[in-house]
Amino acid sequence: MAVPPSTHPHRLLPLFLGLFQGALLLFFTLFVIYDEPSAQAEDTNLVANQVYSTFPFFQDIQVMLVVGLGLLLTFLPRYGFSALTHNFLLLNFSMQWALVLQGLLHHFHHGQIHLDLHKLLISEFAAVTVLISVGAILGRASPCQLLIVATCEIPTYLASEWVIVSCLGVLDVGGTITIHVFSCYFGLGVSKALFRATQQPLHPKETPTLRSDLMSLVGTLILWVFWPSFVAVLCQPGDAQHRAILNTLLAMSASSITTVVASSLLERDGKLSPGHLQNGSLAGGVAIGMVADMAMPPVAALALGSLSAAVCVLGFRFLTPLLGRKLTLHDQCGIHNLHGLPGILGAAASVVAVLVAPKDPS
Amino acid sequence: MAVPPSTHPHRLLPLFLGLFQGALLLFFTLFVIYDEPSAQAEDTNLVANQVYSTFPFFQDIQVMLVVGLGLLLTFLPRYGFSALTHNFLLLNFSMQWALVLQGLLHHFHHGQIHLDLHKLLISEFAAVTVLISVGAILGRASPCQLLIVATCEIPTYLASEWVIVSCLGVLDVGGTITIHVFSCYFGLGVSKALFRATQQPLHPKETPTLRSDLMSLVGTLILWVFWPSFVAVLCQPGDAQHRAILNTLLAMSASSITTVVASSLLERDGKLSPGHLQNGSLAGGVAIGMVADMAMPPVAALALGSLSAAVCVLGFRFLTPLLGRKLTLHDQCGIHNLHGLPGILGAAASVVAVLVAPKDPS
Amino acid sequence: MAVPPSTHPHRLLPLFLGLFQGALLLFFTLFVIYDEPSAQAEDTNLVANQVYSTFPFFQDIQVMLVVGLGLLLTFLPRYGFSALTHNFLLLNFSMQWALVLQGLLHHFHHGQIHLDLHKLLISEFAAVTVLISVGAILGRASPCQLLIVATCEIPTYLASEWVIVSCLGVLDVGGTITIHVFSCYFGLGVSKALFRATQQPLHPKETPTLRSDLMSLVGTLILWVFWPSFVAVLCQPGDAQHRAILNTLLAMSASSITTVVASSLLERDGKLSPGHLQNGSLAGGVAIGMVADMAMPPVAALALGSLSAAVCVLGFRFLTPLLGRKLTLHDQCGIHNLHGLPGILGAAASVVAVLVAPKDPS
């Protein structure tokens, strides 16, 4: 009743995870330490301030990923418990795996790894990509398959993030490209690769009910509320962070209204589609990530939020069925509409912002 | 299945909202800017500190309004999804509308509007009044009607708040009068005006089930937990804010116990009524708002919390049926018991506190 | 429908609670005051900083206890609403009762009691013991019985905490022994004492459904997310608090993975047991409490988290049925597995840590 059984060797999942935990313990034993306790009172104050300025954001993001995203995935009534469980398992696994990989990279350059809250936060960001990607194959993959996806995706993400941020010098505080666009196309690729041949019919249990839609909407609302923390946590404290919070709030507020407009225009009887609402309200947060901390007028955030919600709803209405028919590409949660299209829009917006902005301050 | 269709022209809702979004964009383009980036390091620290001291409170309040209040309204099982959706839509619409109106008022006096977190917070407070008022007509009004209520209520609130706070000089950090009492009587007026003639029978879907009551109670608990943030966010940092938090905690704790006492005394079989618990536990928070930051002994907060819960439960048991029979006034969520009566009690308490207090410090 | 009726005198519960509220009001009138308002600007800043550094943690803990723990207890579908209600009532009652008792103790030594956020926090910690203990008799005791348990447990806790911390000098920031182990064995004792003779069959309504398991898991996840705040709130600001947060995060992350491993190895068909997941994921948080702020290598936190989750799952699989058969000891929520065994493990770990640690810094 709970988690669908792994294909037939029941022992594959515990074996895989058990080995991973063992390797993790070994890795931590050899390489990971905490900072030396700060000797001076000044340093102690500094650490305390860092904790107070980062930890609330960190907790907000944990709530988003564990509770908000988990609930968002429970819209398939009989698969709800499994979806929540898998999301939780994947988050933990991916975070640990990202910690190991980042540690190894760091180790080759600098020796022992000093663990702190910031490193955990970076690993958490890496884990987000996995949680987004598996939305494309929700309910159709075994836990083992999901773990293998995570195992492959984390190093790919770290490499792509390094190329985009360090090599190309792209600024992306909210992870619009590095997280959302990347994980969307990775997830679609996985979906295509795993379920290539089969023009699978929808599983009979895959129909949302009134009640499962309610739980899923609660998940959306939790994500909606805490999204500004996700975008702002890595910003420069002060004006940039303040602006990132405000821009995200504006973009998401505009998204919600535009989603209602677009959805009730597109549906024949003028009713809102729960799926549109659950996703469209968040599109602004995806799109704003790249430009959130830039010095742009507030109206740009509103416009971007509106536009991305419209694109997201249009995607659900027209693009998803098209992809399913033409490319036999199944996208169970519609990650292409929530993460792919608004992400590309956000990237385009950042290009415009960069082209326009320098004239003002210089 | 989701949102009940607007009367018969399905296009009214998107038309109305779409025009509003367009006007909002225009308004922001013309009038709203961010502060100039702070040039000096000191200013940056100041901004950062403001963000760290306001933003967690702001997030708490967002959780209250979006998740807590939304869930509280889901006690009608088949109307739950719509209630949550309407609450979310109204919050966004009202906040944007309050932002525009406040901006216009400000514009006539000072030119361009510098957007910051504090201004968003004030708009959010304005939006709360709408969310409370529509509780009286929950499940009986179309989305368009709800939006029209919001359109009218926000300017009325701003005017009344200006009269009460600026002209009369009333201190009301927690919004006991300006928010709770105002929105209660506004909501009752709307209910009377919209459903004047009809002695409507309860809709068949309007009977809470065990499960919908559980979700609604979760909403109450979320509101209960974060209420201190709502009351304390606008207080002077330091002692006043500390006292506001403590007083609110004491009042709400006393409310919960007294609700259980009052409810099990009034129900014939000694069982608790879910409706009493969902509302009475919060009555202390409504009543304490006006006196929360005053220098009064802690026992006053406890007594006020107890008293307001008792009044709230008595209201549900006796006053609501009476109003329905005598005045054909329907109050679906019992906002008169949760916001009206405890609000008046809190106002009376603040009069007493002002009369008694000056003797001590002088 | 809501709360099961108290045995037969329906008036016992309101009488008991009403008298308690009266006594509380009297006590507060006589003994409890707030601090004098700070005269100097420096003091005001100090108070403000205390509020900003404690209040977010305090709120996190409130969410854990009121929403998280409440939802965790809703796994019995028809008893869910009552479980949530009882949890909420007991939290408020126990906190107030602890405030009175601590106040009285303090009063005999120092005169009037100056209430502040820290004192409320300490009372909240005392209340946690009651919430844990009653897990053993969930659904089998009337509200009055639960309140009597709380009335007895709070003074016992205060005495035991005084002996352990003040007399024996044991450091236990996360309450591993003082809260978890204590309340576990107190709760088991209560269960034995109340239901001694009866080899009670499981009540027919005591079978979790898919949906009630989902809600319960959401409760677990909320507890999981905010647990670091619970462990770190009483730590020294700076390095110790930072370390406590990191250690708790690591331990709980390891717990979640190990729970999946252990549970799918033990269940015949390789499926996860919801009960294991709901409890095992939290075992690391229980065990880490005592050593969280010590200067130990990060791998120790991971190992402790893994070990405690394994012990917890093994306890559910083998020990709980054994205790039920041999000692007719019923432990409805399995508190012995979640709080007893991991707590003992954590205590053992702290002994090891103390024996090993001094060599390094000296």
Walk me through what this model shows.
Three copies of one chain form a homotrimer. With 362 residues, the first copy, chain A, is mainly α. Chain A has one domain: Ammonium transporter AmtB like domains (Ammonium transporter fold, Orthogonal Bundle). Chain A is 72% helix and 2% strand. Chain A is built from eleven helices and two strands. Chain A has a two-stranded parallel sheet. The N terminus of chain A is likely disordered. At the A-B interface, helix 2, helix 7, helix 8, helix 9 and helix 10 of A face helix 1, strand 1, helix 2 and helix 3 of B.
Strand content of chain A: under 5%
CA-based shape of chain A? globular
Structural class determined from secondary elements of chain A: mainly alpha
Tell me which protein chains meet in the greatest interface and how many residues each side has: A-B, 51 and 58 residues
The number of domains of chain A is 1
- What is the rounded distance between the termini of chain A? 63 Å
Question: What CATH first level of chain A would be assigned?
Answer: Mainly Alpha
Kindly report the oligomeric state of this protein. Answer: homotrimer
Domain Ammonium transporter AmtB-like (chains A, B, C): 24-354
Family (chains A, B, C): Belongs to the ammonium transporter (TC 2.A.49) family. Rh subfamily.
Transmembrane segments (chains A, B, C): 12-34, 54-76, 88-108, 120-139, 215-233, 245-266, 299-319, 339-357
Protein name (chains A, B, C): RHBGA protein
